[in-house]
Write a structure and sequence with these properties.
hydrolase, GH, TIM Barrel, 3-stranded mixed β-sheet, beta-galactosidase activity
Amino acid sequence: MTAPAPSATAHHDALIDRLPPHFRFGAATSAFQIEGAADEDGRTPSIWDTFCRVPGAVDNGDTGDVACDHYHRMPEDVALLADLGLDTYRFSVSWPRVQPHGRGAANPAGIGFYDRLVDELLARDITPWLTLYHWDLPQELQEAGGWPARDTAHRFADYAELVHERLGDRVAHWTTLNEPFCSAVLGHVEGIHAPGGRSFADGVRAVHHLHLAHGLAVQRLRSAALRPLDLAVTHLLGTSGPATDSAADREAARRADALGFRFYLDPILRGRYPEDLVDDLAVRGIAIPVRDGDLEIISSPIDTLGVNYYRSMRTSGADDRGATADAHGVPVTRNLPHGGLPVTGLGWEVMPHDLTALLLRISHDYPGTPTVVTENGAAYDDVPDAHGFVDDAERTAYLAAHLAAVAEALTRGADVRGYFAWSLLDNFEWAYGYDKRFGLVRVDYPTQARTPKRSALWLRDTARRVRGDVVRR
């Protein structure tokens, strides 16, 4: 492995060194983005297999058919994690690989892959952090109604129990869903993720049924537990302030906070939907499809809240022509960049200070909720040298600044217990295809060769410095 990367700034180092020895350092991936083997060993299509075939849906017409070939190279990738000194691996299970068609018994070959993965991780003293759903809904369940249909929540609970039956003796950390916002809004309202829908009402229904799926799964897992479990859900979160001090912008920021933040946390952590959100939806003629008992299920106690953070926005109450309502009388809520900040290769503003603010807000508004930063990272235009090594100074600085922001939040009272970089590997980045690279490790797709980048070596050295030889399961 290449020599250690240079240290972060003294300021970042000083903050990071305040992290406790038992703080978790990990990396994250998801099944569809890395596994490949799309039609092997009984796996059936997911909504993303279908979406990739829609002309223009994914850059360059890329698909997840091969991806990083992790299905065949899993031991090599686990060895990479161990070499990088990471103590936790957040991965997702492919629903259509484990339960083809989304119904019925577990597929022995499919669940067998994750059985071997868990054993490989434990053999190297790496904690498995399992995510049950990272967007790969079986296509047959989509054709039966998908997330806007209530029955999908019950199908998910069955699937969660199947996975637990095989892995629950060795896996303690279970996350039900990754980023319900993306599944519901990007997939059903904006149409830029699978399944490509464009209905605000469907998006609202999908959010509620994703919440219900989470609650039902938590109840099933808790009931079937063979050992103490740490149950979690992961949300994509950020801060949202008004673009100006005008009344219209302040009101728009409130609406954005209700729809993009409290819509996801309040039902799980407070057992209710925000009243102002319900009123905002009524303006559009939409009601959340809550039935008796739903919120009691949805608010089943969890142990950890996963926080995925990439950026924050400002909110305006006027469109680019100055109008404050659309043609249907719905108030304008428009997200704007802050401006004047450095940006990643995706044009996302780099705002580590807002990660501190976000973690402190969760600690204040939802006290007693431990958090883990389950995703944070950046895409940059990596340029490998002749040996495939990427001297990604920008990504290294990004990770250092954000890890320091986590440490700052922890010193100010937030209960933050870990930080997982997105992503272990360059991979299939959804609608961006393979052009955008977030990985700590470069993947040369034609050869599938893996080469740790400078950022990986920095994270390795930082984790070892902070954590020492302490390992947890």
